[in-house]
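Why does residue order matter? Because the sequence determines the fold. Keep that principle in mind as you read this record.
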Amino acid sequence: MKKLLSIVICAALFLSLTGCGSDSPFTDEQKQIQTALEDSISLTWMGDVRNDVTELWRLSECVTSDDITAYALDYYKAYFTSDDEIHAIINFGLNTTNKLSVFGESLMIDVYDYVSGEEHDAATLFGGALIQSYIININSGEVQ
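Structure:
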């Protein structure tokens, strides 16, 4: 009886320390898309942006020669947990910083020249010259 009680207590303690599920804000479907992006464009999720007072900025890094429009919608589906967020994707393959935000049913994308070290502080992020802007319809995938 003592052995069974010990096992039950240990199991309860383990579950309370680790949680019954994951603390990840991402769904299983999002995780599948994340894995595909990690494989295809060497994307690394960095999480929150340092010194962001809004707590809504997120950061990822990748290395690819692909234009942002090739993977932006998949990125949105995989990593946005709220349409209030602003995401930065630093692409070291093209030396660009991509700013993704949502307005209605549109994914707004601004592409900037990458400034060395800008990813380390919200105050310097998106500090390069604006190169290009795109709008992608979230429902149809049409790029404007």
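Confidence is low (pLDDT under 50) at residues 4-21.
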